[in-house]
């Protein structure tokens, strides 16, 4: 489980954090995560979208550990 956690952190959390810090994603947006490429060259893509009804999304409930 730890290698998977590290991969998720490196490939998704780190990139997503950078996009937020650099203003590419802003408050109130829904983040859509996709992929480009296949196999070893595949990478995640991130796109911000405003909810269709214009209301900000609510935070999901946190899972209990």
From TrEMBL:
The keyword Nucleotide-binding applies. GO terms for molecular function: ATP binding. This is Clp ATPase C-terminal domain-containing protein. Keywords: ATP-binding, Nucleotide-binding. Pfam families: ClpB_D2-small. Residues 1-33 form the Clp ATPase C-terminal domain.
